[in-house]
Write a structure and sequence with these properties.
- It is a single chain.
- The protein has about 475 residues and is an alpha/beta fold.
- It is built from 14 helices and 16 strands.
- A hairpin with a 5-residue loop joins strand 9 and strand 10.
- Helix 2 runs parallel beside helix 4 (about 95-110) and helix 6 (about 140-155) packs parallel to helix 8.
- The radius of gyration is 21 Å and the shape is globular.
- The structure holds 6-O-phosphono-beta-D-galactopyranose.
- 6-O-phosphono-beta-D-galactopyranose binds near residues 14, 168 and 169.
- 6-O-phosphono-beta-D-galactopyranose binds near residues 14, 422 and 428.
């Protein structure tokens, strides 16, 4: 058996990339509603060219979508709750009942099919009002507002939701302070002091959410979520090895704090050398001791790094800094390097470091799909490239399991096509299900099963035995 009997197979989405209905039923604006082109903040009002305002109309079609997930045999479905549906500005006294009711329905729909909900509490969708009023996570007051929001969710869904994630890709704030941290100060002007103080606030907020979850839901499992920036040295030059070690710490720092309950030893040097003097209260230190139950992460690709910035060819990735191409890796249409073994490596590195259960909550191939008509008149996408990508990555997951790594599950990113995060376009598709909507926002929104739909269904039905080595 390649995978444990209870392995949680499934898929993942995020509210801001699929729901649409950006101003329905009392929802407030989120930072995503003003990001029509991806990361860059151009205006602070919603504009018609923002595909996320309509999304894939999941808000009105989630029943059909979850039925399709159930047809594939999903055991788990990861989705996020839009904070601004529950607290439109983040600061209301009472939560928005219509927002809570929507997620009641989503959760009930999952449970109807025996699908375990896995809820991301904050997936790049802080209420815009908190960005404008407080400069987002740069302000300590966000901690209490987030914990209040968590309490509302835990009290409402505690009988139905066992798996929770506090912040999506929490370490991405280093690269994208607005999208990840709702910090309006442009990245170029943001001091390391303010950035790391904001990071500290998020880490404390996450720990307090863990504490509260354990109090209110003793059966629950609550985890952190890390963007796995997997890096190899460009050459065996020891300078490159040390460079990789330093860059990895941009990622590990976040998991180290959330898993071990305190800042790692190397943080001291990072802070000293960057003139960072954090305001860490005694209460913060106590709060940080509430550590997560599992470590979840996204993995799409790996990169190389060199101590010499003139060496190697840059990858151009906007989620990482100064990374280089690996001559041994293939590249996706969007320039993301493809490295299935990197997933085995990443799983082992996390497990060696933490000995906590791991959850792969994002992985997949963003590609330009073509809908074609078959002989019987029905439509599909022949996405053999996606099948290959996932097959190869899942084989490496099974290798990691053989290595002894405890892997709770795997949720394929964008199991239904949705608006991309980094480029806010529709044509970068990840799904097993095609959605008829183009980059100009035109299309019927109709859903079609791709070839990978039946392929994944079979992988789940055979618990991974159908994968090809
Ligand atoms: C992660 C995000 C997701 C997602 C994915 C793919 O960083 O957590 O929200 O979209 O990346 O990225 P993209 O949509 O840019 O291809």
């Amino acid at each position: 058996m390649r995978f444990p009997e209870k392995f949680l197979w499934g898929g993942a989405t995020a509210a801001n990339q699929c729901e649409g209905a950006y101003n329905e039923d009392g929802k407030g604006l989120s930072i995503q509603d003003v990001l029509p082109k991806g990361f860059k903040l151009i205006t602070d009002e919603p504009t018609a060219d923002n595909l996320k305002l309509k999304g894939i109309d999941y808000y009105h079609r989630f029943k059909e979508d979850i039925r399709l997930f159930a047809e594939m045999g999903f055991k788990v479905y990861r989705f996020s709750i839009a904070w601004s549906r529950i607290y439109p500005t983040g600061e209301e006294e009472q939560p928005n009942e219509a927002g809570l009711r929507f997620y009641d329905e989503v959760i009930d729909e999952c449970l109807k099919y025996g699908i375990e909900p896995l809820v991301t509490i904050s997936h790049y969708e802080t209420p815009l009002a908190l960005a404008k009023k407080y400069n987002g996570w740069a302000d300590r007051r966000l901690i209490d507002l987030y914990v209040k929001y968590c309490r509302t969710l835990f009290e409402r869904y505690k009988k139905k939701v066992k798996y929770w994630i506090t912040f999506n890709e929490i370490n991405s704030i280093i690269h994208q302070p607005f999208m990840s941290g709702a910090i309006l100060t442009p990245k170029e002007q943001l001091t390391q002091q303010d950035l790391y103080q904001a990071i500290h606030h998020e880490l404390v907020a996450s720990a307090r959410a863990v504490k509260l979850a354990h109090e209110l839901m003793p059966q629950a499992m609550i985890g952190c979520m890390i963007l796995a920036v997997t890096i190899y040295p460009l050459t065996p030059n020891p300078d490159d090895i040390i460079e990789v070690m330093k860059l990895e710490r941009n990622t590990y720092l976040f998991a180290d704090v959330q898993v071990r309950g305190e800042y790692p030893a190397y943080a001291k040097r990072i802070f000293e050398e960057n003139d960072i003097h954090l305001n860490i209260t005694n209460q913060d230190k106590e709060d940080l001791k509430n550590v997560v139950d599992f470590v979840s992460f996204s993995y799409y690709s790996s990169n190389c790094a060199s101590a010499d910035p003139t060496k190697g060819e840059p990858t151009g990735s906007n989620m990482t800094t100064n990374l280089k191409r690996n001559p041994y890796s293939k590249v996706s249409e969007w320039g993301w390097q493809i490295d299935p073994q990197g997933l085995r490596y990443t799983l082992n590195r996390f497990y060696d470091r933490y000995q906590k259960p791991l959850f792969i909550v994002e992985n997949g191939l963003g590609a330009n799909d073509e809908l074609i008509m078959q002989a019987d008149g029905s439509y599909t996408v022949e996405d053999d490239y996606r099948i290959q990508y996932m097959n190869d990555h899942l084989i490496q997951v099974s290798e990691a399991i053989k290595d002894g790594v405890d892997v709770l599950g795997y949720t394929a990113w964008g199991c239904i096509d949705l608006v991309s995060c980094s480029t806010a376009e529709m044509k970068k598709r990840y799904g097993f299900i095609y959605v008829d909507l183009d980059n100009d926002g035109i299309g019927s929104m109709q859903r079609y099963k791709k070839k990978s739909f039946d392929w994944y269904k079979n992988v789940i039905a055979t618990n991974g035995e159908s994968l090809i080595e």
